[in-house]
Amino acid sequence: MYSYEDRIKAIELYIKYDLSLADTIRELGYPSRNMLAQWYREYRKTGELHGHYTKRPEYSPEQMRAAVDYYLDHGRSITRTIKAIGYPSRPVLRAWIDELAPGKRKSSIKDGTCIRLFAQEQQKNAVLELCTREGSAASVAEQSGVSRTSLYKWRHQLFSEKDVECMNEFFKSLPDDREALLAELERLKRQIYRQQMELDILNKAAEIVKKDPGIDPQELANKEKASLIDALRTKYPLNDLLAMMKMPKSSYFYQRKAQCMPDEYNQLRTEVKEIFAKNKERYGYRRVHAAIRNAGIAVSEKIIRRIMGEEQLIVPYKKKRKYSSYQGEISPENLVSRDFHAAKPNLKWLTDLTEFRIPAGKVYLSPIIDSFDGLVVSWTIGTSPDAELVNTMPQKAIGLLTEGEQPIVHTDRGGHYRWPGWISLMEGAGLIGSMSKKGCSPDNAACEGFFGRVKNELFYNRSWKDVSLDEFIDELDAYLRWYNEERIKLSLGSMSPAAYRNSLGIAA
Q: Across residues 472-485, what is the average pLDDT?
């Protein structure tokens, strides 16, 4: 008979577990589902439980032993046992089995009161028993303590249908020799073990060293192999991993020791990251190397490239689109003819107009580039691509000219450079005009390249969502000043255009 306290405890736990019969009974081990539901209905209706319930039938030790023996001798089926001998209830019989025959009660994947988790090794052994069985699959499932459906599910997870067919054909061809079969079974177990190890190595290679899933582990560097072995040593023996990776034990321990040693490039690594951040992620490894060298640090370009790769210091850039052009009309004479080199300053000037589109609106840049060293001689920035923007840009540049200097001003065939205002400005200052062909951007490739650098280093891969037009104009103006005064240009001996002119004794 369940005491009043037992019944109240069951009801309180039932309410706590959101009226889950299974969870309550699993925790307490009593009563039956119907009894608990009956108790709850009474408690909910009256707010109390009466004190008289029918006693649970009491059984003698002989009856308990008889029920357990029948269970063990007739397939370990609780349902069959109760049906044959007429007693007890399922929870009571389970309790008797656990008491009189510990560990003998068959546990299903889910039988209402317990859940059994099968280890991977148990699954493999059960599948091997299935593939090498002499009897039915049901007998193998019963022996393994799992349902027939789950057994076939495990087989599907471990082997493909083709593998199963080949395995069945193989076993059919084997002689009726128990020793030979056991040896073959052991070989298959080792094969499964090896395949599982290979799979784990490939997964760790993709996770730790960021390699493609199909990478050959033997092609990895010793440092990467050591990292994989360290990650899997808790699961597999060291010798097995070394054999799989084809790595000498001495090399492994050397890499372990090397990992514990301090990084000889620790200070250099900090310098590289600072230079990269200072220049707003615009420098590749060549310019970073030039900056390091200018700072008086002697190091190879290869080391800088390796450090930047390890630290993921990558310059963002926009993927280039394939150039396409069309046959345009006959253009005026092109005096530059794609020769963008100049022997001295103020010999060839290049200009064009480019657009920056941000959420706040559009901003336009009109510069003059000197072919001598790439110096931005002058520029105007505005929100409208009108004649005023283009015509006011050359005024500063013209003021820098000395007597006798008549630079060629090369443009494309945009309407801005065919307007009377621009033409009169060029003629009044004595500047020589030159134009590209219509629709032929390579004719002004140096200026287009400058725009590409500006957009890659300043504009692309940045969010301008909360930036106003005035703030963006200030950013662009600051970039152009940095471009002239600080940005390293490798073709100028790793100096900025302004520093290069100063080294030549030319005023920037």
A: 91
Q: How confident is the model at residue 329 (pLDDT cuts 50, 70, 90)?
A: very low
Q: How far apart are CA 338 and CA 78, in angstroms?
A: 93
Of 307, 249, 298, 301, the closest CA to residue 273 belongs to: 307
Report the length, in residues, of the chain: 508
- For residue 84, give the H/E element and its range: helix 78-85
Q: pLDDT at position 162, please?
A: 66
pLDDT band at 478 (very low <50, low <70, confident <90, very high): very high
Which DSSP category does 492 fall into?
G
348-351 vs 361-370, strand pairing mode: antiparallel
Q: For 350-403, write each residue's pLDDT tens digit.
A: 988 999 999 999 999 999 999 888 899 899 999 988 888 888 888 788 888 888
Q: How far apart are CA 129 and CA 121, in angstroms?
A: 12
Same domain assignment for residues 133 and 151: yes
Token readout for 239 is: 């010798």
- Domain containing 287 equals 266-310
What is the predicted pLDDT for the residue at 335?
84
Is position 101 within any domain? no
- In a domain, residue 468? The reply is yes
Give phi and psi for 278, each to the nearest 5: -60, -40
Residue 376: phi and psi, rounded to 5, are -80, 100
358 DSSP β-pair partners: 361
- Of 45-59, 248-262, 273-287, 334-348, least confident by mean pLDDT is 45-59
Q: Are residues 427 and 362 in the same domain?
A: yes
Residue 138 lies in a domain: yes
From 260, 275, 299, give the residue that closes a domain.
Answer: 260
Q: Give Cβ neighbours of residue 457 (< 8 Å, ≥ 6 apart).
A: 280, 281, 282, 315, 479
- Say whether both 240 and 372 belong to one domain: no
**Whether residues 161 and 272 fall in one domain:** no
pLDDT of the residue at 363: 92
